[in-house]
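Bumping my old thread because nobody answered last time. Still need a sequence for this structure:
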């Protein structure tokens, strides 16, 4: 049986030191932040974001550049942290486009994906400029061409491919089956020919996203090699080099008991073989190869802090009822795509050395049995007024949650950077 509290202990030991028993984030006292800004509260550590970005960039150096997938956390202040490191942005809506611009990115550093782009969003990015629009269906192809015609432009587009069954997926496989995302691989040549026939479109790239929450270096390396082979097919079909090969994101982080971190050393060891593939095809050698993770870069940098309102024992089970819950952090409750509901790492914000831990069910204030933040978190004795924190909460948190449910107030979002806390949302 996996050590249910081992991941939380490991994360505290490596990234979240305690001072006098209180978790520190970026050198600031987490309990003090909760007193200042109230609870529930999201806290993000900019230094940890930068470290994740630099570590990944170094692991894939000489092969790929790293952009940021805005959907993971779309706050402009978060996007700006990565933009300052040199990242571009992958967006999926007009609002995310505006957030990327607000963060200081130039339009040509933005890639626009998503299976259901609105006419208004297509018009906005063509009028304002965009690095590339990733086409996902034939109707969208026509709408982008029509918008480009109205603005007297030739739009740069990429084909998003729904890969065949030979592509390996991650924890949430996104290829090899019927999908709303992208064009099926078996139709690739026909799609290329349709784009080439559109005077207002210029085919500049390919986008492959085979899976998400991948913790296996070998699977990720295999996906990237598969994407390079598809890119070679496209380049051969059009008879010229591609500008961009977007190999997607999909890099995972440990959330649950038994999860281990992605091995960047193993990723780095596999890069020479991928570089050799690129060098063998002159039509790929000049392409900008892109990875665009979101969760991997921002997830470990975030904590969701809630205050205990009441404790109770029901038929032998301990419950901590808090002011935070699934309305702010749906993923932590296990209701954002999880089939088997498992606990994110949950810790006490203040814990005395040597405190005895016991299993707690940590729940929120909502009138639904789904509002559970942990089913068996090993925590010290809790009382009303104590604080708990859900770790690994920087990605798919507040903006991926049903914030209007039961009309509770929104939590503040705080960015800690250089020893200073700044409110960045909502």
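Sorry it took so long. Here it is:
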């Amino acid at each position: 049986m996996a050590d249910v509290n081992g991941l939380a202990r490991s994360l505290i030991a490596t990234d979240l030191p305690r001072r006098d028993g209180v978790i520190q984030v970026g050198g600031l006292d987490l309990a003090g932040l909760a007193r200042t800004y109230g609870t529930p509260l999201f806290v993000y550590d900019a230094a940890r974001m930068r470290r994740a970005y630099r570590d990944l960039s170094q692991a894939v150096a000489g092969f790929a550049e790293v952009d940021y997938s805005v959907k993971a956390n779309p706050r402009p202040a978060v996007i700006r942290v990565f933009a300052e490191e040199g990242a571009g942005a992958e967006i999926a809506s007009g609002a995310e486009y505006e957030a990327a611009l607000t963060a200081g990115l130039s339009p040509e550093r933005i890639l626009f994906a998503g299976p259901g782009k609105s006419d208004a969003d297509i018009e906005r990015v063509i009028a304002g400029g965009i690095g590339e629009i990733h086409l996902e269906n034939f109707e969208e192809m026509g709408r982008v061409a029509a918008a480009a015609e109205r603005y007297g432009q030739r739009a740069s587009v990429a084909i998003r491919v729904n890969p065949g069954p030979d592509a390996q997926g991650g924890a949430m496989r996104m290829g090899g089956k019927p999908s709303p995302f992208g064009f099926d691989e078996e139709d690739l040549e026909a799609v290329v020919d349709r784009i080439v026939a559109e005077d207002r479109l210029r085919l500049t790239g390919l986008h492959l996203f085979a899976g998400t929450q991948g913790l296996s270096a070998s699977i990720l390396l295999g996906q990237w090699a598969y994407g390079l082979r598809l890119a070679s097919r496209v380049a051969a079909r059009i008879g010229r080099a591609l500008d961009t090969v977007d190999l997607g994101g999909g890099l995972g982080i440990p959330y649950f008991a038994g999860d281990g971190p992605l091995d960047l050393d193993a990723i780095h060891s596999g890069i020479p073989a991928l570089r050799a593939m690129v060098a063998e095809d002159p039509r790929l050698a000049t392409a900008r190869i892109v990875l665009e993770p979101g969760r991997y870069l921002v997830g470990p940098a975030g904590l969701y802090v809630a205050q205990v309102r009441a404790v109770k024992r029901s038929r032998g089970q301990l419950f901590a009822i808090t002011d935070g819950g699934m309305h702010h952090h749906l993923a932590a409750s296990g209701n954002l795509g999880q089939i088997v509901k498992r606990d994110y790492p949950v810790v006490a914000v203040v814990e005395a050395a040597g405190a005895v831990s016991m299993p707690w069910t940590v729940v929120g204030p909502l009138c639904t049995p789904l509002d559970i933040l942990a089913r068996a978190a090993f925590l010290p004795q809790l009382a009303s007024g104590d604080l708990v924190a859900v770790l690994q909460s920087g990605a798919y948190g507040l903006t991926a949650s049903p914030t209007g449910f039961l009309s509770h107030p929104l939590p503040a979002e705080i960015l800690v950077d250089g020893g200073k806390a700044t409110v960045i949302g909502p």
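The first helix runs from residue 6 to 15. Let me know if any region looks off to you.
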